[in-house]
Amino acid sequence: MKKLAFATALTLAAFTVQAQAQEPRHGGTIRFTAPYGASFVSNDSHVSNQIQDEIYGYALHSMLYKWDAKNGKPALDLAKSVTVSPDGKTYTYKLRDDALFHNGRKMTADDIIWSYTRIMDGSKNYPGARYIARIVGATDVQKGTAKEISGLKKIDDFTLEMTLTDKADPGYFLFQATTAIMPAKEAQAPDFFNKPIGLGPFKFVEHVPGSRMVFEKWEKYYQPGKPYADKLVISPMGEAAARDVAFRNKEIDVSILGSTQYVAYKADPNLSKGLLEVAEVFTRNMGMNPAFKPFSDKRVRQAINYAIDSDLIIKRLVRDKAYRAVSWLPLSSPAFDKNAKPYAYDPEKAKKLLAEAGYPDGFEFEWTATPNESWGIPIVEATIPMLAKVGIKVKVKPVETSALGGVIVKGDFQAYIWSNTSGPDSLTALKCFHSSTPRSSCNYTTFKNAAYDKLIDDASAETDAAKQLELLKKANALLQDEAPVWFFNYNKAVMAYQPWLHGLQPNATELALQRYEDLWVDATSPAAK
């Protein structure tokens, strides 16, 4: 079902991929961009919940699984094979014996166990905890009642047994850099993250904050003949205009396009030849903090959804570089209900709901937003006159993109606007709204609903795939009715690439995340040498 859903998503994506008739060329430099902020949060990939940092994590680290963008499903990466128990909960991995950390030491089962245990440190609020929590005993470590994850057992150096709390494919939640496998002994050194080492295709050279992160080829990478490039430079460029200038000047090899650039690049006879498009599993939304009294009332949250003409904003401001959101799950999700309808634009209904909730004259709230043109201040500004029509006043609180995650995790907001992962696994995505999921993981609105919890718990326990799917559809529908967020849109991601760059894939989990070991530049690149 998941495979079919992603195949469908890829057929929806109109993209052009460069011809692969040439043999991959070795050498040269790949000049990548991290487009979601002016800097990276940390050299520690376990720390950040931002895609900005995930982008460099794919170069430096390897995870137990990797995302196979071509086939729309996870694939083993640090394991050669896996066997699954009859109940679908216990996975036994035969780990790679040729995966070497950048200091030359072989990875063993101890490194995986240490990495996952570290992520569950309850005092640190690591974002990857939401994934590791699905291993038996992981939450005990998080609560401080255990020092080891009971569901992880080392059989020998290269055999690992993992028992899950529910029947699931761990590949769908153990491929992110927030679950990167780090060297157990070395990573505990106090200065480790000044020059971190990993298992990835490129090893760390330097990080110049606000400018670039530089990597060089790891000659002992476990995939023979890869990576192709000698060097990788990732430059944080949060401003779309800066990326546009750099791309047109041939200073960078790729650029994630905003809505304005999308229109301009499509109209350009040369630039239009190098566009890669895909429907990503991200939901743009305005999260509402129930600690701010008006937002604790469902009718107010519903009124927000009725008061905003989302379709008009998508058409005029986003330039149709998005799909209208119905509820949380995106179009590519197997639990997406094709018959469901989004909130209609109905200011009168919004006014009625506000009056019923005790706010006939509306109210004022503070909306935290970044400069991002697709899900930031420009979008907020477009909603202000719409909300004003129903009596709701908005005060914009600007923050840097790199700081947004920290603000939200602390709960220091009345409302925020963000783009959040809503796939690829439906159950994992919907668990973000389960009352047991902390804000530090992904329940940013601290949503609590007993009926919703039961649907998710029942879905977690259900072994019949079809029945589980129906439960998840009901949960997604209930979420739409409860409206913990304003459901804005699902992202249509577009990447512009230079004609000399080869090997890109339409990654629906996040287009900016590419397998750097598969990328190569031909001799026409300005950085071919």
From TrEMBL:
Coiled-coil intervals: none
Solute-binding protein family domain: residues covered: 74-433
Primary location group: periplasm
Keyword line: Signal
Family matches, as Pfam families: SBP_bac_5
Subcellular location: Periplasm
Residues making up the signal peptide according to the UniProt record: 1-21
InterPro entries in UniProt: Peptide/Ni-bd (IPR030678), SBP_5 (IPR039424), SBP_5_dom (IPR000914)
Family statement drawn from the similarity comment of this UniProt entry: Belongs to the bacterial solute-binding protein 5 family.
Protein name stated in the entry: ABC transporter substrate-binding protein
